[in-house]
Amino acid sequence: MLFQRICMRALHTTRQVYAGTGAGSGSGLEKSALAALRKKTGYTFANCKKALQMHGNDVTLAEKWLHEQAQSLGWTKATKLADRATAQGLVGVLIRGNRGAMVELNCETDFVARNDTFKRFVDHVSRICLHYTDMTDFDGDLWKLGFDSEALRNLRTDEGRTLGDHLALLIGAMGENATIRRALCFKVNNDLRLVGYAHPAPTNVGTTEGITQVGKYGAIVAYRSDHKLLDSEFHKSICQQIVGMKPKKIGEYDKDEPAENKDDETCLIHQEYLLDADRTVGEVLQEHSCEIVDYHRFECGEQTEGNLEEIIRSQHQSSN
82-107: per-residue pLDDT in tens? Predict the structure, then answer.
């Protein structure tokens, strides 16, 4: 008797579920519209369903409403989390032709820094910075532009929103505080070239031209070479030297003497070459007919407030 009651109750419940499904399909909510909206926006099933119901299955209006809600919630979340420290993050390096951008974005945890969504945002910020570099014309050989956090947040994207708006969306999605800390853009003319590197770098990667490299450290180098063909591995090693050995300046042979202790050397040309300790970086550069004209190094989380001000003051620096 008890078994019969359980079966009857299960049958009754099943009929209610099927009846509910039938009523839902008659409400006008098209499955194709729901699937299209979810694929396009990435928002949850429940939110997409609510948006379509509110806007008569109009996918365009529903998408607009979802973005507005996400932006509002993102700014609310960003405001609540603004005081939380952002000690982790990534450096992004993007080189495209004679333009280069290096950015630093911070977050609270390494878990978020390794998230693909955060990495895509680093790429997005790098490309926006490079876009503003593309718009600049100059007559010298080398031009640099530094952005602080506030300037970066106010940069406008193609759709009219600012990077600050996009940052709020990221904070809302990630659930922890994040900041766009700084950026430095390079542009070269005439016979100067650019190379960039982020560490740690992925293995088995070919060209990095037009691809945003991400890591905890980054470097961009402006150089002059007699060779028309790019020796990518050699120039990568010079970037690795700058990232790993942290030289304070390039150095000049007629002005800078080598340090007595090689481990204390701060001039790039006098440092031991990482790939061959029997030679200096200066000797290797001469062998490759290569001259380093300028460089800059980012380390995620380093204290560089005064340095950034110096970069911004030298926005229109040119080099002979």
Answer: 889 999 999 999 999 999 999 999 99
Q: Answer yes or no: are the C-beta atoms of 130 and 99 closer than 8 Å.
A: yes
How would you classify the pairing of strands 217-225 and 192-199?
Answer: antiparallel
For residue 73, the Cα-to-chain-centroid distance in whole angstroms is 23
pTM above 0.85, yes or no: no
How is residue 82 written in tokens?
Answer: 């603004």
> How far is it, in rounded angstroms, from Cα 316 to Cα 286?
29
- The torsion angles phi and psi of 122, rounded to 5 degrees, stand at -60, -45
CA 258-262-267 angle, 5° bins: 50
162 DSSP assignment: B
First to last CA, the chain: 98
Interacting residues of 60 by C-beta distance below 8 A, sequence separation 6+? none
Query: From the centroid of its chain, how far is CA 181?
Result: 11
Three-class SS state of 141: coil
Q: Which of 86-90, 173-177, 229-233, 308-312 has the highest mean pLDDT?
A: 86-90
Q: How far apart are CA 44 and CA 59, in angstroms?
A: 15
∠ CA 224-230-233, nearest 5°, is: 105
Burial (Cβ within 10 Å: 0-12, 13-18, ≥19) of residue 195: buried
CA dist 195 and 223 (Å) reads: 8
Under a CB-based contact definition with an 8 Å cutoff, are residues 224 and 298 in contact? no
